[in-house]
Amino acid sequence: LEHPSDSDRYCSPSGQIEDAYCLYETIEDATSNLYEPLSHLVHTPFFRYFKVDLFEECPFWQEDSLCMSRDCGVETEEDESKIPHKWRAQALSSLNDVQDANDSNHPACFARVSDFCYTPDDSSPSGVYVDLARNPERFTGYSGPSAQRVWDTIYKENCFGVADFFESSGRLQSGVAQVSQAPPSLGLLTGAGGALGAGQPGLEPGFDIDLDGENDMCVEKRVYYKLISGLHSSISMHICSEWLNQETGEWSPNLDCFTTKLSQYPERIQNIYFLHALLTRAVARARPLLDHYDTSVGDGIADALTRQYMNDTMDRVTACGDTFQEGTIFDGGPGKQILKEEFKAHFRNVSRIMDCVGCDKCRLWGKVQVSGIGAALKILFGLDGDEIKQPNTLQRSEVVALFNTFHRISESIENIEVFRKLYEARKTGV
Ligand code: FAD
């Protein structure tokens, strides 16, 4: 396998994806095979409805810059009959269980020990159903200090200090619940203190690590960074692919946007492939569970189609082979276990930072995709060989988020080809 390098073709990374165990070319081929069934899958009734609370307050600072653009709005599902009865019944029966949620800071959200994320689910008493297919992720106009602050804060979560602290002081413990003796700056792990990220030496957005020269950073930190940067790149890709021309009112790809936000930073493009490699492996690993997952909504024809698209997608994912080796991460003694708990705590913080996004549509897709990546991390690092066979280890919302995120990232890779063609056309004047 070759080291990653940019080939002569515009925006075409080639060779091995660092920290994943496959080639850029493998991911491109895989994407072109699985994109079609996956696109059908996310339009089925089971996968298109996501329950979400868009009015949760930002727990870290006062967020008052609401996006007034019409394109920031989310259409929620008013017609209750479209929501299968069993999902609604789950919400009713869980009303009394809310006090049992294990995160007292966030009563509407549940997180089990294996969870890398706070994912809203059908049993949350708050929240509304959103039809994701009717609310596409695209340009909304959300930008400026509010968006910048959210990205800044997310990148600053890439500061891992607890493992070093416990290792150096010899007090190795397990689980974030026990970090009460940690240094005061670690209040950010539980979101306490309101100054999340302030003064932390995390990675600034735009840092765009030069991975060739970055040997000091442990693989777990690199993985964290690449996941966040890959998500950021994918969001930028959808903004540029579905850009609103304010003069004509038309939605179309914008090559200048793509150049400014993505193509002039090759590592941002590479991180989309990395994220795809990790998601592909997570879906493959969860196949025993997903093959038996109940995706029925009570409509025989729709249910059979959902199963068919699911099988087609899974077959193509399995055909890719191993795209990521989860066994090499968090491997190597108690310090790495602490690091894993820390990684989990930081990623959970990212899911809560989504409540600080000042544009409903961006918040919706931010929540879906952070939940999807969180589900993938849970599958790879949180579930053992037996658990991965038990369908009830993943909630419906986690499965929905996982596949919708997989679809978003796959579409980003598909769109690279769209921009290659636009670039060629501009260059040759055709
Ligand atoms: P930003 O994208 O805001 O980036 C901030 C800084 O981060 C850049 O200056 C750069 O230094 C660095 N950076 C940029 N990309 C990367 C990368 N891939 N890796 C590492 N560093 C990077 N807007 C929409 O129109 N539609 C949406 O659906 C949408 N969803 C959003 C979801 C979330 C969670 C957030 C926080 C914002 C969302 N936005 C959305 C806003 C959008 O992401 C940008 O913030 C906005 O378009 C302004 O872009 P910018 O070019 O100023 O830089």
TrEMBL record:
Disulfide bonds: 67-72, 109-117, 359-362
Protein's GO biological process: protein folding in endoplasmic reticulum
Annotated binding of FAD, by residue: 138, 140, 151, 229, 232, 261
Predominant place of localization: endoplasmic reticulum
Necessary cofactors: FAD
Top-level taxonomic group: Eukaryota
Keyword terms, alphabetized: Disulfide bond, Electron transport, Endoplasmic reticulum, FAD, Flavoprotein, Glycoprotein, Membrane, Oxidoreductase, Redox-active center, Signal, Transport
Gene Ontology terms, MF aspect: FAD binding; protein-disulfide reductase activity; thiol oxidase activity
Gene Ontology terms: cellular component: endoplasmic reticulum membrane
Entry membrane topology: Peripheral membrane protein
Active-site residues annotated for this sequence: 359 (nucleophile), 362
Entry keyword annotation includes rRNA processing: no
Cellular localization per UniProt: Endoplasmic reticulum membrane
Quaternary structure, from the entry: May function both as a monomer and a homodimer.
Similarity field: Belongs to the EROs family.
Name of the molecule in the record: Endoplasmic oxidoreductin-1
Lineage per the UniProt record: Eukaryota, Fungi, Dikarya, Basidiomycota, Wallemiomycotina
Residues of the full protein shown: 29 to 458 of 522
